[in-house]
Design brief:
This protein has about 375 residues and is mainly alpha-helical. Helix content is about 45%, strand content about 10%. The strands form three sheets. It has a three-stranded antiparallel sheet, covered by helices on one side. It has a two-stranded antiparallel ribbon with strand order 4-7. The chain has a two-stranded antiparallel ribbon with strand order 5-6. The longest helix is centred in the middle third of the chain and has 20 residues.
């Protein structure tokens, strides 16, 4: 029996009428084969090489002297990277990550052979994106490129990682991180009806995410706390935000005012079914939609007092900022909100001017002591 050898095939160009085309050639069962892969004006060389590699892949199974497979960026990302990541990503992470990759990365590098992608080209791409996008968007794109090449190295698709030296350039300035002041919170509580006030309270005082609030079931309520073991994202029930496979359920304490409003809400809509949602939709079978809760119920009333810029994210940031200002232990506040201490301090907590004045005054006093008043 003839020994089966590994073959690379041959890729060349040929004139078909007035058009130049890519032509692939290879051997199959002792016979020479060929196939037109497309016009040179429409198919780049990397795509043609990748197509030829895909044709030869089943023929080279079991052959000696195996060589690394050839993939274009699009083929590897869509065929290998994303399917692997979908198994570990939560729904919210999957939706946002895939959207970012398909909107920015694939259109830019689709036909480029993965092993031909250079650090210079990727850095130029990040520099271009930095002109019109925030630091968060560009940093995530850099992270995705790094993750794709790390997986490609483990699969033997590339020999080295050109993303190690990539950096996030100076980006478009992001929006000011707004928080509600104490007086604004009081005004909001006065104009909101019972249901909206309870949703508002759970976000501002308890620090819960909107998906966690809307996924609360009657059976999860306690006297002065609530068990957060589910969240809803785009209509899909899932475990609370956190690493997939880790314990993410937590018990959230309720403030006295929230407990009072909660009792009023339960009296208005009595239900003893432990599986019933606390804030159901009109069908009573699914949780209330986040967009409906905010745009239809809460935002119009906030707009009447000049707080139309507020959002659920602003309410969560307000919780983190006011908790620090009230000298609440950072670890306790982070556990209440259900995220790490680093995220609590770096992303959500915002220091106001008064806190900064008090900080520099305290520092000066510690260093210099109480200085005597100057006399003329």
């Amino acid at each position: 029996m003839r020994r089966k050898r590994y073959q690379k095939g041959r890729l060349g160009t040929r004139k078909h009428g007035r058009h130049k085309v890519w032509v692939a050639q290879w051997w199959d069962d002792g016979q020479k084969r060929s196939k037109v892969l497309g016009r040179c004006s429409e198919v780049v060389k990397g795509q043609a090489e990748s197509t030829l590699a895909a044709i030869l892949r089943p023929l080279n199974k079991g052959a000696g002297n195996k060589q690394k497979p050839v993939y274009t960026f699009k083929q590897y990302v869509e065929g290998t990277y994303l399917p692997v990541c979908r198994r570990k990503w939560k729904e919210s992470t999957r939706f946002n990550s895939e959207q970012s990759i398909k909107q920015h990365l694939i259109p830019e590098f689709a036909g480029t052979v993965l092993s031909d992608l250079s650090r210079e080209r990727m850095q130029d791409f990040l520099d271009e994106k930095a002109v019109g996008n925030s630091q968060s968007v560009v940093a995530h794109l850099r992270w995705f490129l790094s993750a794709i090449f790390k997986m490609a190295i483990s699969d033997g698709v590339v020999q080295f990682n050109p993303t190690l030296a990539l950096y996030t350039p100076a980006c478009k300035a992001g929006k000011e991180r707004m928080v509600l002041e104490r007086d604004q919170i009081r005004q909001a509580l006065e104009v909101l009806n019972l249901k909206e006030r309870l949703l508002f309270r759970m976000a501002v005082f308890e620090g819960m995410r909107p998906g966690e609030i809307l996924a609360i079931r009657i059976g999860s309520l306690r006297e002065n706390s609530v068990l957060i073991d589910k969240r809803v994202y785009r209509g899909i029930l899932d475990s609370p935000k956190g690493r997939k496979g880790k314990q993410t359920a937590r018990t959230v304490a309720l403030s006295p005012g929230t407990v009072t409003d909660l009792k009023l809400w339960r009296e208005k809509f009595p239900c003893e079914d432990p599986n019933q949602f606390l804030f159901p939709s009109e069908t009573m079978k699914t949780p209330l939609s986040r967009d409906n809760a905010w745009r239809r119920d809460i935002q119009p009333k906030l707009q009447s007092i000049g707080l139309e810029w507020a959002s659920f994210q602003v309410l969560r940031r307000t919780n983190a900022s006011l908790s620090r200002k009230a000298n609440i232990d950072d670890k306790v506040a982070a556990d209440q909100r259900g995220h790490g201490l680093g995220v609590s301090l770096e992303v959500y907590a915002v220091s106001d001017l008064q806190q900064k004045i008090e900080a520099v005054t305290k520092l000066e006093s510690e260093v210099l002591g109480k200085l005597p008043k100057k006399t003329e």
